[in-house]
Specification:
alpha+beta, six-stranded mixed sheet, 21 strands, globular
Length: 732
């Protein structure tokens, strides 16, 4: 297929996505009457009436707003509420679903919702609204958003239930989005929402997320696999029917009441296996899947014995998730058999409740709240959500948190034993360090060695299910940076990073103290001799409260020791004077000493900027801004050459500095920039234009101004030009 043919085909399937999104049964699948009818099957009339009140309020707030499908906006909150009603969620969650866009898209405040519908509903709506702010460009901002999601989940898991339902309806109508928004939303759904749905055990929603996201990202591939699945289904029909009948008849003969259904692999699952396992489509479709649903746990194990007698089991392919459930609450027996004609058969055996939890995850527990033993899965999912809060607190920044979260969202669990016989659940690839941190953070931080099955083993050894692990600790031990190369669990990696940062902090403070003392020694004093009670104002200027924080910033290289020393000396001694800078060229400094002054072209300081100087052969005192990157490098290499400086009373001299301006390309824009600068009595020394792309140009303008106030006036006028996108000071 040529590139043009591929583009035409893709365009066809994209247009089909848009047509599907606009259909009434997709874009507006219910009315308030059909919603209340569904709710009436499990909620009392009083609560249904409260839901109707929330709908009327939301409909009024969204009056005049329409979705891209062409339907009134209220159709979306109604669709979200109906999805949650299918999970039999409580009335407060349904109300929050109807109101979830009110705070974000209308003028209604959280307090107003609290007064009308109660504090819990307002908190749920506020939580969902905070998650709705999706950042399109910066990875850091995107990570912050998902950090908010985890925090909201930890506070009230119903927030994420509403958000998942909201994303599900948006994915069903993804066809009307622009290409860029469609791809970003689909990628985000595959990367985060589908794994979170899976982690919460919501299998049906995870499958729909994956198939919708796959079709939006790769419409040609999705359509190709869908057609091949339909074709293969026709060839398999006769054999599938025989296998089904033999399993059903064997169970009935032993008096077990069971429902036997065949399992179809979904499109994205087939694609993922073809891609990651390098399998052909035929290899994947050769496996037949069946699900057996019985009344109780005892019947599960009896059914397992029956199918093992019917067909020979494959050695090593049996898993008991009933005795040891997955962390999201999933329970089932899994086995693989050699069926008739040698075809492989994958069988899952579970109870009716287990099937409900397998399909709807944590939402399935709303259906079975009354029975204590059937809430274990919900408790396990909630425990994982609480662990996210601990992860967030340990992560140094949002990107670290997302790194840990991704690991925990894609688990392939390993089960190992503690020395006391307790079972610990770890992700595939976990090592003894992961085990140590899973037991307790302090155990991980002080770990020095381990025993696996009572034999000494390296800390980097990957663990296997069934092994027993014992951790050996020492009081003064500390984590090693090397551990990050083999620890895989989010909790272990976050704990290691936190401990390493604490070690680094102590070392940074020691280095910062040494550098600051060196700078103060040039002025005949030291840290011990300064009165820090009178220097709190200086700390505030640097955005810190304690001396250790200043020293740490110096040790990290975030601020320069000579800059801190200058501020401290000036605040501590009213008679202290830095070198007064009056003009460029030869000048007299105190006590008649001659000095040549030049200005750094890298930063272009102007009167009003915080400055510092350094002595350079042939140039004398070169003045830079304190924040100049080149000056920081000089300060690190030769701190003794740095000289505190200040602006003295200036004459009518002009100073050169440079601005980098991003502008939309259009005819006459450079002339407009020059005219605007001249209109503010500033001079234009030179202009360089660099083309970034077809729409945007990067312009470096070297200008002359009298001081920082004059420069600010120039920049303010330039920002008012419609073509200007961004602007900042730069090197000349």
């Amino acid at each position: 297929m040529t590139t043009a043919e591929k583009a035409t085909s893709e365009s066809y399937f994209v247009s089909r996505l848009a047509e599907t999104a606009r259909r009434d049964e997709i874009a507006a699948p219910c009315t308030i009457d059909s919603l209340t009818k569904a709710l009436g099957s499990y909620l009392p009339e009083k609560q249904v009436a409260q839901v109707r009140r929330a709908h009327d309020y939301a409909a009024n707030a969204h009056e005049g707003q329409y979705r891209r499908t062409g339907h009134p906006y209220i159709s979306h909150p109604l669709a979200v509420a109906m999805i949650l009603a299918g999970m039999r969620m409580d009335h407060q969650t349904i109300m929050a679903a109807l109101l979830h866009d009110v705070i974000e898209d209308t003028a209604v405040a959280k307090s107003t919702l609290g007064n009308r519908f109660g504090k819990q509903v307002a908190e749920l709506v506020d939580g969902v609204s905070k998650l709705a702010i999706m950042f399109e460009s910066r990875a850091e901002a995107q990570a912050e958003n998902f950090q908010k999601m985890a925090l909201a989940m930890a506070k009230d898991i119903r927030v994420i239930m509403v958000k998942i339902a909201d994303r599900l309806h948006n994915m069903r109508t993804i066809g009307v989005m622009s290409r860029e928004q469609r791809q970003r939303t689909a990628r985000e759904t595959l990367d985060y929402y589908a794994p979170i749905a899976n982690r919460l055990g919501m299998h049906n929603i995870m499958v729909e997320f994956e198939d919708l996201g796959f079709a939006a990202l790769h419409p040609l591939r999705a359509e190709s696999i869908r057609r091949r699945v339909e074709k293969a289904r026709g060839h398999r029909k006769a054999l599938l029917s025989k296998l089904h009948q033999s399993i059903q008849a064997s169970l009935e003969a032993e008096g077990i009441e069971a429902t036997v259904t065949s399992r179809e692999k979904h499109i994205y699952s087939i694609y993922s296996k073809m891609k990651t396992q390098q399998k052909s489509f035929e290899d994947i479709m050769d496996v037949f899947g069946f699900r057996i649903v019985v009344n109780d746990e005892d019947a599960c194990y009896r059914a397992l014995g029956i199918v093992h007698n019917l067909y020979k089991p494959v050695v090593g392919r049996f898993k008991d998730y009933i005795a040891i459930p997955k962390i999201n609450g999933y329970q089932s027996l899994h086995t693989t058999l050699f069926g008739m004609h040698g075809v492989p058969i994958e069988v899952q055996i579970r109870t009716t409740h287990m099937a409900e939890v397998a399909d709807h995850g944590i939402a399935g527990h709303w259906l079975y709240k009354a029975r204590e033993e059937k809430t274990r899965g919900g408790q396990r999912a909630r425990r994982w959500v609480r662990d996210l809060m601990e992860l967030q607190q340990r992560a140094g920044n949002p990107l670290e948190f997302i790194d840990s979260l991704k690991i925990d969202l894609f688990p392939d669990d390993v089960y190992v034993f503690t020395p006391k016989g307790d079972i610990m659940e770890l992700p595939r690839g976990a090592c003894p360090v992961d085990f140590a941190y899973a037991v307790h953070t302090d155990i991980g931080n002080h770990c020095i060695a381990c025993r696996i099955d009572r034999a000494l083993a390296p800390l980097s050894q990957q663990l296997e299910s069934g092994q027993s692990v014992e951790i050996i600790t020492a009081k003064g031990a500390k984590p090693s940076p090397d551990w990050l190369s083999f620890a895989v669990s989010g909790k272990a990696r976050a704990g290691i990073r936190q401990s390493l940062k604490n070690q680094e902090r102590a070392e940074s403070i020691m280095l910062g103290r040494k550098l600051l003392n060196r700078s103060l020694t040039n002025a005949g004093t030291s840290i011990k001799e300064l009165d820090f009670r009178r220097l709190r104002r200086v700390f505030k200027e640097f955005g810190v409260r304690k001396l250790d924080e200043v020293l740490q910033a110096i040790g990290h290289g975030e601020v320069m020791a000579y800059a801190v020393a200058q501020r401290l000396l000036a605040a501590d001694d009213s008679n202290y004077e830095a070198v007064p800078v009056e003009h460029e060229g030869p000048m007299a400094v105190h006590e008649g000493e001659g000095l040549v002054v030049t200005y750094g072209r890298c930063c272009g300081p102007v009167p009003g900027d915080s400055i510092v100087g350094h002595m350079t052969q042939g140039k004398g005192l070169v003045v830079h801004m304190e924040t100049c990157k080149n000056m920081r490098e000089i300060g690190r290499r030769n701190p003794e050459q740095t000289i505190p400086a200040r602006w003295a009373a200036m004459t009518d001299q002009e100073f050169t500095t440079a601005l980098r301006i991003e502008v939309n390309r259009k005819q006459g824009v450079i002339a407009e920039l020059a005219a605007t600068i001249a209109a503010v009595n500033a001079g234009v020394d030179r202009i360089n234009v660099e083309e970034r792309d077809a729409r945007v140009s990067s312009v470096v303008v070297v200008i002359t101004v009298s001081d920082r106030i004059h420069l600010a006036r120039v920049m303010r006028r330039l920002r008012a030009i419609p073509s200007v996108i961004t602007m900042r000071r730069t090197h000349q």
